[in-house]
Amino acid sequence: MVLDKLDLGIIALYLAGITLFGLRFRKKQRTLRDYFLADRNIPWWAIALSIVAAETSTLTIISIPGLAYDTNLTFLQVVLGYVVGRFIISFVLLPHYFRGDLYTAYELIERRFGKKLRSLTAGLFLVTRAAAEGVRVYAVSIVVAIALGTGEVASIAIITALTLVYTFEGGLAAVIWTDVVQTVIYVGGTLVGLFTILHLVPGGWPAIHHLAAGAGKLQVFDFTPDFWKPYTFWAGLIGGAFLTTASHGTDQLIVQRLLAARSQRQSVAALLSSGAAILFQFALFLIVGVMLFSFYHVPSANFGRADRIFPTFIVSQMPHGISGLLIAAILAAAMSNLSAALNSLSSTSIIDFYLQRNPQTDERRKIRLSRIATLFWALLLFGLAVLSLHKVGRVIEVGLQIASVAYGALLGVFLLGVLTRRANQNGAMVGMLFGFATELYTWLFTKVPWTWYVAIGTVVTFGVGYVVSLAPEKLSTAKNAK
């Protein structure tokens, strides 16, 4: 069960084409502003598509259909929370990012609290982003191994190497503009897949709707007041809003794109329009999963794991040519997400750590070191992806769990900075450590759904940080009273 020469030709053409397209931007990188912010000259619509691509990985394309195959459409409640979170960022965090010439999210923390907390938040981002991205890169091997029959390690190495080439040379401009192309490819490819499934199921959509409705697959809303269910309306809306406020408002992966906009207004337009796109996209992937259930009528365990269903269908059921297009589409999502991770990890490493200690470094050396950092993170993510082989369950949930463990602590610190004046660096650091420890404990030792992780961590971080910040003030007041 492998692809034929036409499919392989389409995949090879895509891989070569996107790499060469990304290399077109290598001559434009003369300063750090060019390399990490694309000279702040990217139109809002390109940033919007890049945001969508950056938060879409192979996990999304293969695991979301698998999730719908096993359950229903209730994951859309989380996506509604994603949209709400974007409005919060637009009014609460973005105005602060556009006051000054910032390169990373964590420079805002230094401006409000100090260098120690900036290093702590940036370090937490590096560790958790690398861990979560390792799982995302691993997901590539599921698709390529099924499609090409190659080894999983070789599959990961090929995609990592090709993505590294244009990210290394072209910086954020190459990342964003390749994201635009890749978004069109994977969304278009998925739509082709959807219409192909419609054609292959006897009776078309009416038959699919009848089978899916009878199995409860078309349920979108679940208003059950059950804290322990991950996909209820309350967990989705609240948890999704907290998750996106953290991931898009404090994570350098997305903030870097928002800072590349020509103005705050364009940044807001990019963020909000990406919300509409992401709602459409997740609905598309979930519907594909429901349609696959109507086609196969068997438990997901028959495929080994739910994440293998969509890739297996593409290779075994799709007409030749379309199979190659869809595999190329999935690789497009993988490469866009990986390139975003490499550039954001590199920018935080150089700007938040190296340049803090070596501020007099000349521009040529800054660019050279940034590229070396990109290479380092590519090798590390490759290693983490290899370690992830055979060690994770449904990859979309594992990836979200890992990312969520740190997001609450980060968001709590940012909210302490922008919503309060009394919070200080020591209090924020203590609150952050308590929040992160709480999230870690919740993840490892409880059955609390991942949708609540960020909300819990944010509340603990904000509450503890604020109280600890006020403690010296209260002690001082008490002494003066005596």
* Overall CATH class: Mainly Alpha
Succession of helices and strands = HHHHHHHHHHHHHHHHHHH
Percent in strands: under 5%
Overall strand count:
0
Shape, per Cα inertia axes: globular
Number of domains: 1
- Structural class computed from helices and strand pairing: mainly alpha
Q: How much is the radius of gyration in Å?
A: 22 Å
Give the % helix: over 70%
Residue-averaged pLDDT: 86
Question: So how many helices?
Answer: 19
Distance between the termini: 82 Å
- The CATH superfamily is Sodium/glucose cotransporter
Note the main sheet: none
Uncertain stretches: none
CATH topology grouping: Sodium/glucose cotransporter
**Second CATH tier, the architecture:** Up-down Bundle
